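Dear Dr. L.,

I hope this message finds you well. Following up on our conversation about the binding site, I have prepared a predicted three-dimensional model of the protein together with manganese (II) ion. For your records, I am including the exact sequence and ligand specification that went into the calculation, followed by the structure tokens. Please feel free to forward this to your student if that is useful.
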Amino acid sequence: MAFTLAPLPYAHNALEPYIDARTMEIHHGKHHQAYVTNLNNAIKDSDWDKMSIEQILGSISKASPAIRNNGGGHYNHDLFWSILCPHGAHEYDRSLPVVQAIESELGGYEKFKTDLTQAGVTRFGSGWAWLYVKADGKLAICSTPNQDNPLMDIAENKGRPILGIDVWEHAYYLHYQNRRPDYLNAIFLIFNWQRINELYLAARK
Ligand code: MN
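The resulting structure of the complex is given below.
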């Protein structure tokens, strides 16, 4: 069963001025599409072809580099598009369980923002910064290289990701050039907290 690229849940220009339309067109239509195409080619006519993406990531230590890179790339970008939205800053609402958990477990919004930004800024080269739910149900922050993520059985920090920030240059270079910290500062204004809360609740079931 081949994986497919879902349409973006909003227009390419919906996240402007924080992420520009051209970046979204290339990032979704070219980069994410390439992960999907290359993943399908890598799993073709093998047992991996019968597994869900989460099953694949959970057994990734046994997979080829092509499955690891493109399977991670497909999962990570699906998550990334879903946790962004226009005007997200207005949604950081203390009635949401995930917001209450950030306040009680991660030291509040400012510390959360500082720590997640730091995870992204200090990731050398390409990778992701994550907010994830550990096996004990608590929130944590980490970063991973390349297209790895906390669902992978090889991950140093394991859990269920509920918010991921792409810090590959292709995510920000057209608008921000080398200024990754400026991109990270802006992206906090477009988080879809309703969606992140849904993922938080699902991860704790
Ligand atoms: Mn990307």
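In brief: The first strand starts at residue 127 and ends at 133.

With kind regards,
A. P.
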